[in-house]
Amino acid sequence: MQHRVTEFFVGLLFGVGLILAGMTDPSKVLGFLDLAGTWDPSLAFVMGGGILVGLGAFAMAKKRTTSFLGGAMHLPTSAVIDKRLIGGSLLFGAGWGLAGFCPGPAIVSLGAGQPKAAAFVAAMLVGMAVFEIIERKQARQSAGAH
């Protein structure tokens, strides 16, 4: 139970940070992507801050065998850039550019009752479900081929 309470407060802190940074406002994101128009560079500072925190957190995590809450550490091991990674990145970027949302801010905005966020989160959930269906189908085909 203590882990869930900690997870809740970490998520709450993350959501408040997104609100304070203006990342729950799609026009902020779209303004950053509008290089030829009224470019808003503030998202670059938010991303830069996130990258710095991430670099420090991953450097610290690599030296540990358990998380701060006692769970096992599961860090990515692959450094391969393949078609799936590139395709997923392009799809993520296209959705981000069209809607002005990425998953975290969309969920925070959904909680604030923004209708556009509800449509985005619904589409995101459908995309996740389609991915899972395709993955399971491919896993069954691979298992049957051996």
UniProtKB/TrEMBL annotation:
Residues in coiled coil: none
Official protein name in the record: Transporter
Signal peptide: none
Any Pfam family matching the protein: DUF6691
Keyword Membrane in record: yes
Listed transmembrane segments: 5-23, 43-61, 90-111, 117-134
InterPro entries registered for this protein in UniProt: DUF6691 (IPR046513)
Lineage: Bacteria, Pseudomonadati, Pseudomonadota, Betaproteobacteria, Burkholderiales
Source species of the chain: Rhodoferax saidenbachensis
Keywords: Membrane, Transmembrane, Transmembrane helix
